[in-house]
Amino acid sequence: MEYHLAIEKQRAFFLTGATRPIGYRLRQLKLLKGAIQKYEAEILEALCTDLGKPAFEGYATEVGMVYEEIGHALRYLKKWARPKRVRAPLTQFPSSCRLYEEPKGIALIMSPWNYPFQLTAAPLVAAIAAGNCVVVKPSRYSEATSAVLEKMLAESFEAEYITIFQGGSAVNTELLREKFDHIFFTGSPAVGHVVMQAAARHLTPVTLELGGKSPCIVDETANIGLAARRIAWGKLINAGQTCVAPDYVAVHSKVKSHFEEAYKKAVLDLYGDAPLEQKDYGKIINRKHFDRLLGLLEQERSVWGGKSNADTLKIEPALLQEATWDSPAMQEEIFGPILPILTFDSFTGLFEELKQKPVPLAAYLFTKNPQHEEMFRHELRFGGGCINDTVVHLTNPRMPFGGAGQSGMGNYHGYYGFLTFSHQKSILKKSNVVDVPVRYAPYGDRLSTIKKLMR
């Protein structure tokens, strides 16, 4: 009942039209930015508490990215929301056609624990820019960050406009029983099924930002030292708990040994010979996931690294040097600092294997071969990715971020987030001066005429 009443209050507020004016939306975005600035130190401290994130990483991958989203929206919102004229068909002469972006209504944002601030606040920016009211449901696992979010949002916004609910799966279940106008969920494919099933009861549109086993391909032409460094960075930020982290590496057999040594060196350069004691290296979110990752390591034959500390929930970067498609670590998304290495001899053969796998959220290719680049761009399905780097494609607010197939549906960031939380209303305005009679019955011998007009 608590959730129902809160949503009804939001719906009543939305129906007043208060959120529609662009000036109102801009003021709320500025208010959100000011609130983040006020709570920035607490947010960074909470991220360290929940995930062991150093302040630099917390700012670079969470707070700073949200600032960029807000700044981008403040700069371009008036342009995004401007009615857009489109060409009218000849059959409707004389007329004009326009598209109007309007808010969907009440949006539910359900965010995960791995980037608990950024993956809550970035879609919130888009929902505000589009003129919606918002219900926020953060993860219970990232307890410290969720508490700061609750305090910040409650202090900054009226509950009839933006409200937040805390709790576990029971709260998720209760919220999903309610009718929303859009649901934005970031999390696992398993929970994504539950969200979509619940949304179907009300025919609610959904955006699902899920995950999957994102491949990283290193061919024989790659700059191995640079590739290893960039892969290690992308794999090990947030201790590997990143939905677009390279899940595994497929390396050409000619350079496999070279890559393994380069990766080990990159890990040592990043975190030294005692990563478990390194303050710049994060921890696993909780004991459940810590034990799951250790279980994967115990089933592998040849492992470099992988020591752990149960008290701090830290696991050293680990390299699985003899992984195969049938390895235990290759059966699920790893979501930790464990990197399996697979070997291939034929680039084309590898692609045929990858095409049979579920569509991943991201994919990466390291090469100097233009033909391999072309195959990567046009033959392999994935949400988004990089050539000769990892992860950083999602930092550009001018590009959409999202999955495909099992890795999700819909996208956001910048203008694409604005579109996600908007309905594009199409309106054709017809002239009252002229009324072309060709469409009206009786049709007589006008078939040839309509064929000429509708080509």
From TrEMBL:
<keyword id="KW-0520">NAD</keyword>
<dbReference type="InterPro" id="IPR016160">
    <property type="entry name" value="Ald_DH_CS_CYS"/>
</dbReference>
<dbReference type="InterPro" id="IPR016163">
    <property type="entry name" value="Ald_DH_C"/>
</dbReference>
<feature type="active site">
    <location>
        <position position="209"/>
    </location>
</feature>
<dbReference type="GO" id="GO:0004029">
    <property type="term" value="F:aldehyde dehydrogenase (NAD+) activity"/>
</dbReference>
<dbReference type="GO" id="GO:0006081">
    <property type="term" value="P:aldehyde metabolic process"/>
</dbReference>
<dbReference type="InterPro" id="IPR016161">
    <property type="entry name" value="Ald_DH/histidinol_DH"/>
</dbReference>
<keyword id="KW-0560">Oxidoreductase</keyword>
<comment type="similarity">
    <text>Belongs to the aldehyde dehydrogenase family.</text>
</comment>
<dbReference type="InterPro" id="IPR012394">
    <property type="entry name" value="Aldehyde_DH_NAD(P)"/>
</dbReference>
<dbReference type="InterPro" id="IPR029510">
    <property type="entry name" value="Ald_DH_CS_GLU"/>
</dbReference>
<dbReference type="Pfam" id="PF00171">
    <property type="entry name" value="Aldedh"/>
</dbReference>
<dbReference type="InterPro" id="IPR015590">
    <property type="entry name" value="Aldehyde_DH_dom"/>
</dbReference>
<dbReference type="GO" id="GO:0005737">
    <property type="term" value="C:cytoplasm"/>
</dbReference>
<protein>
    <recommendedName>
        <fullName>Aldehyde dehydrogenase</fullName>
    </recommendedName>
</protein>
<feature type="domain" description="Aldehyde dehydrogenase">
    <location>
        <begin position="4"/>
        <end position="427"/>
    </location>
</feature>
<feature type="active site">
    <location>
        <position position="243"/>
    </location>
</feature>
<dbReference type="InterPro" id="IPR016162">
    <property type="entry name" value="Ald_DH_N"/>
</dbReference>
